[in-house]
Amino acid sequence: MTLDLETAAKERGIKYFLVSYTDLFGTQRAKLVPAAAIRSTCKNGAGFAGFATWLDMSPADADLLAVPDPDGLIQLPWKPEVGWLPADLVMDGKPVEQGPRNILKRLIKDAARDGLQMKTGVECEFFLITPCGSEPADMADKQMKPCYDQSALMRRYDVITEICDAMLGLGWKPYQNDHEDANGQFEMNWDYDDALITADRHAFFKYMTRSIAEKHGLRATFMPKPFMDLTGSGCHAHVSVWRDGRNVFSDASDEIGMSEAGYHFIGGLIHSADALAAITNPCVNSYKRINAPRTTSGATWAPNTVTYTGNNRTHMIRIPDGGRFEFRLADGAANPYLLQAAILAAGLDGMRNRRDPGKRLDINMYTDGHTVEGVKQLPLNMLDAMRALDRCDVLNDAFGSFVPSYLKLKQDEWNAYCRHLTQWERDNTLDC
Ligand code: ADP
Ligand code: MG
Ligand code: MG
Predict the structure, then answer these.
(1) CATH class of the region 5-96
(2) What is the pLDDT of residue 87?
(3) Is 26 in contact with 283 (CB distance < 8 Å)?
(4) Which CATH superfamily is domain 106-415 in?
(5) What is the pLDDT of residues 65-90, one digit of tens each?
(6) Which residues, in sequence order, are bridge partners of residue 82?
(7) Among the four residues 17, 107, 146, 354, which has the most C-beta atoms within 10 Å?
């Protein structure tokens, strides 16, 4: 039964609700609604001018309505008088086709028609930097190989444990926190769940991490590559697909425990990889993380090629364990809803069309990639990825009018970037 928010507000001491939606570029937009008005907001939605956000709408359009999903309620652990509510988008009485959460829900329903349910866990790497954003905040965090640095982790004990305590309280089952491979970089892991639950938690995690960092005088960033010589922030997604409570990716008779259905799902991701990048690696800056030169730590840990492997972190897809795989392409800028939707759309296409993922490559792709013929490279920049998305039948069919809307907004962004004159151009072209 759906939660009655007015009653929940009284019982839990919630004074305000943050009715929140995520736009095409992943930005969270919200209205703060007093508890006394939440019943009518649930019925009628909270009104927004869609054009004012990244949704490809016009200033002449009717009101965009954000209709909260009571089942997604999360009480802010650092401000319990506020309840966050993820919302679905409605306009003129119809669901907004390009709304990211709407798309994911549509695809989850589509999978359910085949009796399938996707479960995922995400690893949202982030940096703790100075408020002005110019460098990692911890001046003592300078090691060349800073991964798992115990002292640097413990110098951030107050922030990390405040976030982890919050996740414990929310019942997300967090199980580990660490310092990652770049100076100032961290990762916090919680348990996997249904794709929509993970997407809502992913969106909330980004908001929570930024908010709690700010409380501690720091800034948290999920930017894919904030520092050129350091490892960037990925957002790996671990994926399994279930039917009637059974993991259909699990097959003990396979050498590495992956079923035929799992290989077909992977085949789907491989088939659409360059188009997927436009969604999972959505920014100009995303392409400084993939295909990147070696970082000072010794490896970028990001993929360069459309390949899969067993338990080896140098490929786009890793199968660490039977019954699941890790999709390593996505980065910190990925929209939490579109990330899940893109994986599900490409994977379902793979299962339905029995796509062949090709040969598993058990080599160090960073050093020995050149020894294999016919390996496909990931897109080198945002424009190449956008063009691939434009051509991709699988994602155009699954995402509908989202694709032209998204490409239009992204083309504007690309043009704005191209109008930017860089120091590199001046240094290398003034004397041409
Ligand atoms: P690694 O750093 O080795 O990639 P992490 O422990 O950081 O792995 O993250 C693993 C993620 O995978 C977690 O969110 C975990 O809950 C999730 N996971 C584990 N098993 C499955 C599964 N069967 N299906 C989907 N996600 C899974
Ligand atoms: Mg991890
Ligand atoms: Mg990982």
Answers:
(1) alpha beta
(2) 98
(3) no
(4) Glutamine synthetase/guanido kinase, catalytic domain (3.30.590.10)
(5) 999 999 999 999 999 999 999 999 99
(6) 16
(7) 17
